[in-house]
């Protein structure tokens, strides 16, 4: 047995979750009763595992150099046990923070952002349809009732956003990063708003355009293929939502992003930012190199910040933070639902992906999504990352509530309006 084998074996002995390792020679380490086995074709990813760099192990799994025998849930239980000390890291040195900012500036411009969004969202509509809900809402669901199905919880999330924004009939509403149009349709059909959505994904643009025509909403809903920085409406919007888009902006562009939200809102208008944040202060890393894996294979250009950084940035451009809600456990359940749905139809999923690419590439894409969904579910379960809804106003004259001097917005400065039954 080599020194590396001894290191791996000693780590396996400390795990609360049994894990078996199959070495390139065929020798196995760890208990035979383990529910999950990792079979290594070469030593490089084995060394990465020994050092705690599970992101590199993930890369090897995508490339087919490490095979997984067992369920994604069992694998993630083992992953959580492997990196107990790497969930929270101290603040990086100043030079690293400066380098991170330089990279953020370099990676984010209109052309790069469009290419990065399309590399993820234009994979295949049919592929996404297999594991998302019928509306293809690709963001955290809201399990208002624990017995809700995924589809019911996604509708509840759409309604939760509309209620928080206190949408009223005839208001002008914008959805920045409209996805497959779930929120646009829900807001227009249930709250009577005039809705404008934007996306950088050609597939999503085409899908929403068809939905608008099929539902006869062309006079009330429009979808635009454009960057948020290029949206120039004839008049400011009354209400605005940004759901699952904030993560793609980049640290260096947060001031620009929130500045655009301010400029798109009329004085007194409300906006809701729904986005993933990192849990630790002073860094944007997810434990064990998993953040690097997600950026490389799933969300190129994606950058996470702490919620305090988001609030600081929006405050810096003159917006007011009104209400903040952490939906982290809801996203853990959402992601596990997506993961389980994908796991239940792997052969069909690979066949769909192979229609547009070489078979070996389709297999890589599928392996990357399997790890991504289960790994993100683990990250939310273990509190490495969170999901915050931040309700925001652009303070201004004209909306002051009688009896509340200085209210200066459409927000009533109490929460009961969000939860009253029958408010449509």
Task: Label this structure with key terms.
SAM-dependent_MTases_sf, 4-stranded mixed beta sheet, single chain, EC 2.1.1.-, methyltransferase, transferase, 2 domains, Rossmann fold, 7-stranded mixed beta sheet, 424 residues, 16% strand, alpha/beta, Nonspecific Lipid-transfer Protein, Chain A
Topology summary:
Elements: H1 3-14, E1 20-22, E2 28-29, E3 37-40, H2 44-50, H3 54-63, E4 66-69, H4 72-82, H5 94-107, H6 110-121, H7 125-131, H8 150-164, E5 172-176, H9 182-191, E6 194-199, H10 202-214, E7 221-225, E8 237-243, H11 254-264, E9 265-278, H12 290-297, H13 307-316, E10 320-326, H14 328-343, H15 346-354, H16 359-381, E11 385-393
Parallel strand pairs: 1-3, 5-6, 5-8, 6-7, 8-9
Antiparallel strand pairs: 1-2, 3-4, 9-11, 10-11
Helix pairs in contact: 1-2, 2-3, 3-12, 3-16, 4-16, 8-9, 11-13, 12-16, 14-16, 15-16
Can you describe what's shown?
The protein is an alpha/beta fold. It has two domains: 3-82, 2-Layer Sandwich (Nonspecific Lipid-transfer Protein, Chain A), CATH 3.30.1050; 102-418, Vaccinia Virus protein VP39 (Rossmann fold, 3-Layer(aba) Sandwich), CATH 3.40.50.150. The chain is built from 16 helices and eleven strands. The strands form two sheets. Strands 7-6-5-8-9-11-10 form a seven-stranded mixed β-sheet. Strands 2-1-3-4 form a four-stranded mixed β-sheet. The radius of gyration is 23 Å and the shape is elongated. Mean pLDDT is 87; it is low at 86-90, 95-99 and 116-121.
């Amino acid at each position: 047995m080599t020194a590396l084998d001894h290191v791996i074996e000693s780590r396996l002995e400390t795990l609360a979750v049994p894990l078996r390792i199959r070495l390139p020679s065929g020798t196995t380490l760890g208990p035979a009763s383990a529910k999950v086995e990792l079979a290594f074709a070469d030593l490089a990813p084995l060394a990465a595992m020994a050092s705690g760099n599970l992101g590199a192990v993930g890369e090897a799994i995508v490339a087919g150099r490490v095979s997984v025998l067992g369920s994604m849930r069992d694998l993630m239980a083992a992953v959580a046990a492997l990196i107990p000390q790497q969930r929270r890291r101290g603040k990086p040195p100043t030079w690293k923070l400066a380098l991170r900012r330089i990279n953020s500036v370099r990676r984010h411009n209109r052309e790069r952002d469009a290419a990065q969004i399309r590399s993820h969202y234009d994979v295949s509509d049919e592929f996404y349809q297999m594991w998302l809900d019928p509306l293809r809402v690709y963001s955290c669901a809201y399990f208002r009732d624990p017995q809700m199905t995924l589809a019911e919880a996604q509708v509840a999330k759409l309604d939760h956003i509309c209620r928080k924004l206190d949408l009223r009939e005839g208001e002008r509403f914008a959805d920045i990063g409209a996805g497959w149009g779930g929120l646009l349709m829900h807001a227009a059909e249930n709250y009577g708003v005039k809705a404008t959505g934007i996306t950088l994904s050609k597939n999503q643009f085409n899908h929403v355009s068809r939905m608008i025509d099929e539902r006869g909403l062309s006079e009330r809903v429009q979808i635009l293929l454009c960057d948020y920085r290029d949206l120039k409406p004839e008049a400011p919007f009354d209400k605005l939502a940004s759901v699952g888009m904030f993560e793609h902006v980049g640290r260096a562009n947060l001031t620009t992003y929130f500045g655009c939200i301010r400029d798109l809102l009329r004085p007194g208008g409300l906006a809701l930012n729904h986005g993933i944040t990192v849990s630790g202060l002073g860094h944007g890393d997810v434990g064990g190199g998993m953040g690097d894996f997600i950026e490389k294979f799933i969300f190129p250009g994606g950058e996470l910040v702490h919620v305090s950084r988001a609030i600081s940035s929006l405050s810096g451009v003159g917006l007011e933070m009104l209400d903040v809600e952490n939906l982290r456990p809801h996203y853990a359940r959402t992601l596990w639902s997506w993961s389980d749905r994908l796991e239940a139809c792997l052969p069909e999923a690979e066949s769909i992906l192979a229609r547009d690419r070489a078979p070996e590439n389709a297999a890589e894409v599928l392996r990357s999504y399997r790890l991504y969904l289960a790994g993100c579910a683990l990250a939310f379960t273990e509190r490495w990352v969170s999901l915050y809804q931040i309700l925001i106003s652009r303070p201004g004259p004209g909306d002051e509530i009688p009896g509340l001097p200085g209210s200066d917005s459409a927000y009533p400065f109490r929460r009961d309006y969000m939860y009253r039954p029958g408010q449509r």
